[in-house]
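User: Hi! I'm working on a homework problem where we have to compare a predicted structure to a textbook description. Could you give me the structure for the chain below?
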Amino acid sequence: MTAIDDSPDPVFTSGSTRITATVTDQSEIATVELWQLVGKSWVAFGEMNLVRSQYQIDFGPLSAAGAYQWRILAVDVHGNATCSMRAIGDCPGGTTTAIIP
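Assistant: Happy to help. Predicted C-alpha cells:
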C-alpha cells in the first residue's frame, strides 16, 4: 500500500475529510476498509471505493475538535491482509485533526 493521504487536514469544520490510498497486489484486491480508533478499540468505519486507481472514503462527520486516528486494512482474494485483524493499529494509516470553531 502506497500513497495514503487525507485531504484536507486539518479539517476546520464539522465536515469530512477524504482519505485516499493506492493499494496494489499481485492478485486481485478483495476489500479495502477504513478503521477508526474509538476510545481504546478499533471500529470498522466503512469500505473504501475504487475510483480511478485509488481507493477513497469520506471520513466524518468529525463532530468534536481533536485528533482522529484511522487505519486501512486491505485484503486480497486469497485472504492475505496488510495486517492482522487482531492488530489493526499496526495497519498503515494516519491521524486527521479537526479544528471546530
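For your comparison, note the following. The longest strand covers residues 66-76. The chain has one domain: 2-85. Good luck with the assignment!
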